[in-house]
Amino acid sequence: MTIKLSNDEKVEILRQILPQFWNEAIHWREDSWRFTTWVVSSFVVIAGASVYTDKALLFAASILLALSIGSTVYLNKNYRNYSHRMMLFTQIEDALLF
């Protein structure tokens, strides 16, 4: 069963949905930048602290590796969620025949 919508109804649907998608896109970008800044700051602190330890290179390398893997997984998960939401918006546009 297909429902015929007028152009005004289609535009109204997009007016209601579009701000939510843009807010999510902006939130994702800001969250990713904030997280990246936190990770880089952690790298700098750990690298500075490793200078004062006996096994500086091994300590710094192991913690930096763990943080790198964790941050990569986190950012990849967020990007996949963001991509999925943008795909949904594209499907909505297609369903409304835009």
Descriptive overview:
The protein is mainly alpha-helical and 98 residues long. It is built from two helices and no strands. Helix 1 packs antiparallel against helix 2 (56-95). The mean pLDDT is 77.
The coarse silhouette is rod-shaped
What's the number of helices? 2
Helix content: over 70%
Category by helix and strand content:
mainly alpha
- Runs in which pLDDT lies below 50 for 5 or more consecutive residues are none
Q: Please tell me how large the radius of gyration is.
A: 22 Å
Strand content: under 5%
Tell me the distance between the termini.
19 Å
Short structural description:
This protein is mostly helical and 98 residues long.
Annotation keywords:
mainly alpha; 98 residues
How is this fold's topology laid out?
Layout: H1 7-50, H2 56-95
Helix pairs in contact: 1-2
